[in-house]
Write a structure and sequence with these properties.
5-stranded mixed β-sheet, Immunoglobulin-like, 25 strands, 396 residues, L,D-transpeptidase catalytic domain-like, 4-stranded antiparallel β-sheet, mainly beta
């Protein structure tokens, strides 16, 4: 029995070196049917997506990583087919979205990878985000496809507070057809709400085409503000170079177009010495409102007036207009006797109303005025020095 064991052991010793030398390289090789290292290279890459799961927090970027291969392409789309653009890293190991995941959305992630051996594969996964507990909305000017005057700013007023102003401002992309220099500036709207305006350093060049792409969907306003759940976009064109110059001391209004005087008409401004004085500085024609009811009680004046006023052109939120004022005809060109507005005859108002457009600047001068309106009282950004306006940006 012991003799048999010895013979078996000897055979085992003789066979061992033969097995050890079978590859000739020290590294296992794959045969033609696969296996070993080549089989490992042929396995699809492992793809990981963050965030993952159901009801995850919104406002995060989506990151896709690949192990055992490189990413060729990644698409992240919501249920409506809207995608979050992004880029694959130079080493092909990861992809990060340029946009953030929006609240209350379901996303499908499709990733295509390749291995060193050339094996391509596509994987899909999904995740969803929690609904927003509070939503912020935007009211913006000017409207799409408008033709505006050379002083028109882009203005966004928010329903709720914006405490993370930098995060919001980063999502506002403004492009112009001629690389106009300008800046965003945060201010308080006349309504008391947060607002951001973009104005050029100088008046717009006529013919400039402007597009605002406010990529706010998935952006958090900050404490007490809520989430944005949509994007906003508008585009407009700048019209002719028109400037309205109002000289309250000499009671006249001059319309200039392309540097030439079109017409000068007599006017009567706000009564000196009290609350009925007009504003001075640069105001911007906000809207042409036609025939409207004006009541002094709405602007805090005690001696009430209540009348229908024709050819009304709004200059401030606080109630300063240019309009027809036939009841003041005897003062036109002679004295300031209005309740703060720029009044003119019916005939002149009819003509003037047809000439101007929203966005035209009114450059108002006069010794006895209320001063310049606050930036949020209409479009008063032009009364802020350029360096001070730039400092209002949250990104400087």
């Amino acid at each position: 029995m012991s003799h048999i064991r010895v013979r078996i052991a000897a055979v085992a010793v003789l066979l061992a070196p033969l097995a050890a030398c079978s590859s000739g390289s020290g590294t296992p090789a794959a045969d033609a049917k696969g296996g070993g290292t080549r089989a490992a290279e042929d396995r699809p890459a492992t793809v990981t997506v963050k965030p993952k799961g159901e009801g995850v927090k919104a406002g995060e970027t989506v990151k896709v990583t690949a192990a055992g291969g490189t990413l060729i392409s990644v698409t992240v789309a919501d249920a409506k087919g809207r995608t979050l653009g992004g880029k694959v890293a130079a080493d092909g190991a990861s992809w990060t979205s340029e946009r953030k995941a929006a609240p209350g959305a379901s996303y499908t992630v499709t990733a295509t990878t390749t291995t060193k051996a050339g094996t391509k594969s596509t994987t899909k996964s999904s995740f969803s985000t929690a609904e927003a507990d509070k939503v912020n909305k935007v009211d913006w000017r000017p409207g799409a496809k408008a033709v505006v005057g050379i002083a028109q700013p882009i203005s966004l007023v928010f329903d709720n507070p914006v405490t993370d102003k930098a995060a919001v401002e980063k999502q506002l992309k403004l492009t112009t057809s001629n690389d106009t220099e300008g800046s965003w500036g945060w201010l308080e709207d006349y309504s008391g709400r947060d607002r951001i305006d973009w104005r050029p350093k100088e008046y717009w060049k006529p013919g400039t085409k402007v597009t605002l792409d406010a990529r706010l969907n998935g952006t958090d306003s900050g404490k007490a503000g809520g989430w944005f759940v949509r994007d906003y976009t508008t585009s407009f064109t700048v019209g002719a170079r028109q400037i309205v110059k109002v000289d309250l001391d000499n009671h006249k209004l001059t319309l200039e177009r392309d540097g030439r005087t079109v017409r000068t008409i007599p006017v009567s401004g706000g009564t000196p010495g009290g609350d009925k004085r007009s504003w001075r500085g640069t105001t911007v024609l906000m809207s042409k409102e036609g025939t409207i009811n004006m009541n002094s009680e709405t602007v805090g004046l005690a001696d009430a007036y209540d009348k229908m006023v024709d050819y009304s052109m709004r200059l401030t939120w606080s109630g300063m207009y240019a309009h027809a004022a036939p009841w003041n005809d005897k003062w036109m060109g002679k004295a300031n006797r209005s309740s703060g507005c720029i009044g003119m005859s019916d005939a002149n108002a009819d003509w003037f109303y047809a000439q101007v457009r929203p966005g035209d600047p009114f450059e108002i001068t006069g010794k006895d005025t209320k001063g310049v309106p606050a930036p949020g009282n209409g479009f008063g950004a032009w009364n802020v020095p350029w360096a001070d306006w730039q400092a209002r940006s949250a990104l400087r």
